[in-house]
Each structure stands twice: as C-alpha cells, then as structure tokens.
Amino acid sequence: ESDTASEISFQFNKHKKTPSIGSHSSDMASVSSVSGSVLSVYSGDFGSVDAQGTVEFALDYDEKNREFQIHVSQCKDLAVVDEKKGRSDPYVKTYLLPDKARMGKRKTSVKKRTVNPVYNEVLRYKIEKMVLLIQKLNLSVWHNDPLGRNSFLGEIEIDLASWDWSNRKLNWYMLKPRSLSAVNGVDHRGVMNLSIKYVPPGSLGPKNPPSGEVHIWVKDVKDLLQLRPSGVDSFVKCYVLPDTSKKSYQKTRVIKRDTNPVFNHTIVYDGFHTEDLKDACVELTVWDHEKLTNHFLGGIRLGLGTGLSYGISVDWMDSTQEEVAFWQEMMSAANEWIDGLLPLRSL
Questions:
Q1: Quick one: a GO cellular component term (predicted)?
Q2: pLDDT in tens, 100-109
Q3: Which of 36, 81, 122, 325 could pair covalently with 143 via S-S, beta carbons 3.0-4.6 A apart?
C-alpha cells in the first residue's frame, strides 16, 4: 500500500519497567520538559476598537542589496483606545503572507499619547524579488499596552504581484477592519489526506502483536503554502507526544517543487497499551526543506484534546473537533483503517 514504511516503539516506564531490545522508554517525570511540539508564532490581540484613520507609506525594492523596503511615514485620525485619557500609543507592524513565520514581523517604534503619530522609519526584509512577488504585505496599526494587551487599530493588505514598482512615492491608505478570515482564525495551510489504524495486543492471534500498534499512513497533502515561485520542497515529521526523543521521531522523504505532494508513507508505532490512546497524541507536521533551515508549513494533532496527558496539563493536547473525532473513530474500530482529510493548522 505504500512505498516506504517505518516502525518505532512507544513505551512508557509506568507501563513497562524493562523495555525489550529495540524499544525505548520515556520517564513520565520528564513530560513537563517536553519541547518537541511546535509552538505557535502568532500572538493574538486582546482588545480592539473600530478601525479608522489612514496610514502613509511607500514601497521599494533595492535590487543591489536584494532588500524589500517599507517606508512608514505617519498615521492620521487613529481610533482612541483609552477613552478616559483620550489616548492611544500606536505602532505599525508588518508581515509577509502567506507564511507569517518565515520572514517574521517588523515593527516601528511606539509613539505615545497621539492619534496622529509620525514615524519616518524604514522596515526591511532581505528577500529575493521573485519570492517577494508571490507574497502579500500585511501592514497593521496597533495600540501598545504595557501589559501586552495590545489593541488592533486597523490594517491594509497589498498583493505584491500586482504592485506598481515604479511607484516609490508616499501614498495614503485607509485602514480597514480585520478581515473575516483573521477574525475567525481561519488560516488555510493545506489539507492532509491520511489513514490510521489501531491494532490491540493479541488481536491477530496469541501474543500477536505482543503490544498494541498505531499505524499512520500519510498519503498526500493538498494546497501547501507556496514559498518560492518553483513551489515547495516538503516533508512530514511525526512524533507521538509526550515522547519527543529521537526514537519517537519519524519523517517522510522530501517531495520537491510540489504544492500537492504525494508521500504514500506508513509509520508503525508499537508498545501501545490501549489505555495509552487517551493520553498520547500523534503530531504530524509539514515542513519546507532548505539547506540552512526548515520552515514550518502546518500540522495536525491526533488525540482526545483534553489538555491532559497522564494527569499532567500540557499545551499540545489541543486537538480540534475534527482531529478528536478522527482519533475516537480509530479507538472504537480496532484493526480497521480510518480515512481522514484534515486541515493543516498553525499549532
């Protein structure tokens, strides 16, 4: 059914004191130090007012230094956040979309007690022109709160593929409310097509298998973020949390220049007791492969999403309703392949 297969053992000391050769153990006391799961790079706003006002900026690309430059000049008539004091402390923040994490955010200094801030600052991105032309610029204005409860004041989004690069003048733009996708947290990163199966201990005959097995068949992924004009060089990583050791880690081969990669890769984890299924979480993440560093594209977490693992509160037990339903169906249908089509998300 697949062209590659991996098998790895999943064991915890609390269940098996003397792991067999080829398996591994993980002390549950170390769960609190687990750091292998992917953390979100997106910080949310804690309060917002109705967007109003304008922002003045100019865009340019420095061919010599291969640098995208955003000259943020000023804003006018911004919304007032602290009505009692009649003040806002605004700053401007930028991202390149669709992958906020890849190039990171840039931001201006904070101007205090004004709704008409003047910045005259240049925000810079080192990026190839061809890559820049498949991005969108998201420029937003925020009120800075000392406690970190920043408020959204408005934004504008520009498709850089259709931008007139001969226009280097400062221009005024109306600030708009957050887009519906941003408000609802919609963050389309593609869809993973996969199947999973649980084989209980002894279900295939006496002592066959000797311990429970979880089979994960990663078939393909559709509509990945395109980070380069040529496409994306992607692969899938897999961990069974809370174990983030090298023995738990598995990955597929890299599929080059394809936003719809077909992996057809099966991974088998043994050492599963049936009761482990409610406390473990299969984390599958998709990455873009580059020489110096890999870039996170999206992932899914298969588990019960209870927030707890073996009685310990963990942030990675956060499966969505779709992911929970998929895992529950596997738990209730032993020895049967369960098919799923799950959206990738920013974990």
A1: plasma membrane
A2: 767 788 999 9
A3: 81
Q: How far apart, in whole angstroms, are the C-alpha atoms of residue 315 and residue 306?
A: 10
User: Percentage helix, strand, coil, to 5, in the chain?
Assistant: 10, 40, 50
- Residues 130 and 293: their CA atoms lie apart, in Å, by 20
Cis peptide leading into residue 117 (ω within 30°): no
Say how far apart CA 85 and CA 76 lie, in whole Å. Answer: 18
Looking only at the bridges linking them, the beta strands covering 67-76 and 118-126 are antiparallel
Count of alpha carbons within 13 Å of 298, Cβ hemisphere only? 21
pTM here is 0.58
Tokens standing for residue 155: 């934004």
- Phi, psi dihedrals of residue 313, rounded to the nearest 5°: -70, 125
Question: 46-182 and 190-344 share one CATH topology?
Answer: yes
DSSP, collapsed to helix, strand or coil, labels residue 81 as: coil
Give the other-Cβ count within 10 Å of 26's Cβ.
21
The SS3 of residue 274 is helix
What separation, in Å, do the N-terminal and C-terminal C-alpha atoms of the chain show? Answer: 29
Query: Which residue bears the tokens 């299969």?
Result: 282
Phi then psi for residue 90, to 5 deg, are -85, 155
- Contact of 236 with 218, CB cutoff 8 Å: yes
Task: Decide if 227 contacts 99 (C-beta within 8 A).
Answer: yes
Q: Is 324 left (phi over 0), alpha (psi -120 to 50) or beta?
A: alpha
| Backbone angle region of 328, left / alpha / beta, with phi > 0 → left and psi within -120 to 50 → alpha | alpha
CATH number of 190-344: 2.60.40.150
Residue ranges per structural domain of the chain: 46-182, 190-344
Note the pLDDT tens digit of each residue in 167-219: 999 999 999 987 644 444 445 688 999 999 999 988 888 888 888 899 999 99
- Sort strands 47-48 and 262-272 into parallel, antiparallel or unpaired: unpaired
